[in-house]
Structure prediction request, 209 residues.
Amino acid sequence: MNIGIIGAGNMGSGMGKFWVKNGHNLMFSYSRSSDKLKSVAAAVGETAAVGTPAEAVQFGDVVVLAVSWSAVEDALQAAGSLDGKVVLSCVNALLPDMSGLAVGTSTSAAEEIARLAPGARLVEAMPVFAEVLHSPSPRFEGVQPTVFYCGDDEEAKAIVADLLRELDVEPIDAGPLKNARYVEPSGMLLVQLAYAQGMGAVAMKLLQR
Prediction:
């Protein structure tokens, strides 16, 4: 599969390393520095290339949106039309100082992105922290963390779920896209626990009975 990634930060590169190992071709895009973009692609693997956001969209069977909340509108403008594309968004509407969420409860980052790209087959997932993806293993004492995903397109969700499994996490279908209103605050809680309260690397695990 070809995967276009809009965003060359730690999250995009962390996921990309797993996908390259599983035989996918990647194209990284959207960075202030072309040298950084090339460096990220080179570190991820031989099947990772670089391009513009518009080129990444054309390249990808799946497009991954992995930018900060403040960069979403600019990144989507640079990407151009996403009509018909399966788009995995891992954007949470964090305030710049990570003290809270810019939107929530009555809407979500995912729903706002869907309004900006109405033709996209959008699925949101909040993967584990980037530092966990870049660690020797995403598992916690051998236990796979749970990652919730949501969207309104069942086929797109199935594709994203398979990509999440390749990250060595347990994907759980959290329902329609509007449920991002609940998924995103759970991500904010992890941020608060990890950084504000100094708990270090943390993740969720759903237990069923």
